């Protein structure tokens, strides 16, 4: 039986807290590059630490390397939140390919301490992360 879209949105993707250890390059549509640090990451998007917020709703190219994957994808910037130094701004991938999504999901599970032998469901992995 197919699940409803509302049920899918209610279930959050597991997140890994990276605390700014991964550098990200954001390429704006006007060609300008903005550097950021990845604060949290999931296979649906993430949370960036930026010096200055970007406009909510703009599309950007996101490039970063995590685990064994280099991710290059379009993303939409969401509403920023001011932090002690700079701001935290979430983003959502808009065209992450299935192969890249699977690689990213695998790398995130490794960050969570799971191996392919134990192959836990993402639901169980999600409960291992504090939100």
- Uncertain regions spanning at least 5 consecutive residues: 115-131
Sheet-strand content, in percent, reads 35-45%
Per the principal axes of the C-alpha atoms, what is the gross shape? globular
**Could you describe the largest sheet, including whether it forms a barrel?**
6 strands, antiparallel, barrel
CATH architecture: Beta Barrel
- The total tally of domains equals 1
CATH homologous superfamily placement: predicted glycosyltransferase like domains
Number of helices: 3
Q: Output the structural class.
A: alpha+beta
The CATH top-level class label: Mainly Beta
Approximate helicity band: 10-25%
Task: Give an account of the 3D structure.
A hairpin with a 4-residue loop joins β6 (81-82) and β7. The radius of gyration is 15 Å and the shape is globular. The chain is an alpha+beta fold. A 6-stranded antiparallel barrel has the order 1-2-3-7-5-4. It has 3 helices and 7 strands; from the N terminus they run αβββββββαα. The protein has a single domain (14-127), classed as Beta Barrel (Thrombin, subunit H). The longest helix is centred in the C-terminal third of the chain and has 14 residues, at 98-111.
